[in-house]
Amino acid sequence: MHIAVIGSCNVDITVEASRRPHAGETIIGNKLLVSPGGKGANQAVAAARLGAKVYMVGCVGDDAYGQMMIESLHENRVDTTYVITKKGVSTGTAHITLAEGDNSIIVLKGANDLVGIEEIDRAWSIISTAEIVLLQYEIPMDTIAYVIKKCKEQEIKVLLNPAPFTETPREWMQSVAYITPNEHEAKFLFEGQTRDEILAMYPDKMIMTIGAEGVAYNQQGNHTVIIPGIKVPVVDTTGAGDTFNGAFAVSITEGLPIKEAIAFANAAAAYSVQKIGAQGGMPLREELEDMLLCKK
Ligand code: RIB
């Protein structure tokens, strides 16, 4: 049993400061962190730390950051056979400001923009045998369309995390097994509709993260269920959504019902925000199980 993550590998360049600078202003920051990130790699690492066999499908550049990403995936026991190093391009980077209790991020896609049909076809033997395939929006949309179409034809379960926000064809939402927007992304996707109305269109399929409130979904077309978030001291929320997605995929493949899978993934996300860096706080299986035991 394995999980395939098709997505981005970014090096995150995080500056922590007491506040954000205004336009045209220079301020002094407190701390610099250069660490592995990217929604795809984050979700792969989150799932692997929780014990899943994970294959990453993506691209890095032939630079020091590309090497750093591959090494960090290895260290986390993610299989990188299908992470291709592209000559003459830069590895994706994310430029993150951490201030006033939240992050703001600018992504330069670099090699992530070269994840194309050829890379998918090359990895098809592991994608087509995956228990679940995870996708996000930091690689070309044409590639995502191709994967969703092929997976639908071959009845392969897909979890689509529509982040960062990009218009999403309704047809994709029908085709995938799970779609996991945050509330902000869901509001853009379904302008003018309430949370309950949006969730009711995709019962047991749309899993909406609603920040500190927790996670909402519609149970069997009946009503909205909210699984509350776990309150912890927050250091950095970067990658919390990715930790949630990776952990949710693990628990679903292990056969947990949706409600329990969400509770498990919520706990993983809560664990992760207590350290700086997208992957810095992601829990190992034992760590998460200890946390869940203490909560009981
Ligand atoms: O979801 C968090 C991730 O978004 C960061 O690691 C950064 O790389 C951006 O892609």
UniProtKB/TrEMBL annotation:
Its cofactor is Mg(2+). One of its GO terms (molecular function) is ribokinase activity. Requires a divalent cation, most likely magnesium in vivo, as an electrophilic catalyst to aid phosphoryl group transfer. It is the chelate of the metal and the nucleotide that is the actual substrate. Activated by a monovalent cation that binds near, but not in, the active site. The most likely occupant of the site in vivo is potassium. Ion binding induces a conformational change that may alter substrate affinity. K(+) binds at residues 236, 238, 272, 275, 277. Residues 2-283 form the Carbohydrate kinase PfkB domain. Substrate binds at residues 10-12, 38-42, 138, 242. It is an enzyme of class 2 (transferase). Keywords: ATP-binding, Carbohydrate metabolism, Cytoplasm, Kinase, Magnesium, Metal-binding, Nucleotide-binding, Potassium, Transferase. Its EC number is 2.7.1.15. The active site is at residue 242. Its main location: cytoplasm. The keyword Kinase applies. It catalyses: D-ribose + ATP = D-ribose 5-phosphate + ADP + H(+). Pathway: Carbohydrate metabolism; D-ribose degradation; D-ribose 5-phosphate from beta-D-ribopyranose: step 2/2. It comes from the Bacteria. Pfam families: PfkB. Belongs to the carbohydrate kinase PfkB family. Ribokinase subfamily. Homodimer. Catalyzes the phosphorylation of ribose at O-5 in a reaction requiring ATP and magnesium. The resulting D-ribose-5-phosphate can then be used either for sythesis of nucleotides, histidine, and tryptophan, or as a component of the pentose phosphate pathway. This is Ribokinase. The lineage of its organism: Bacteria, Bacillati, Bacillota, Negativicutes, Veillonellales.
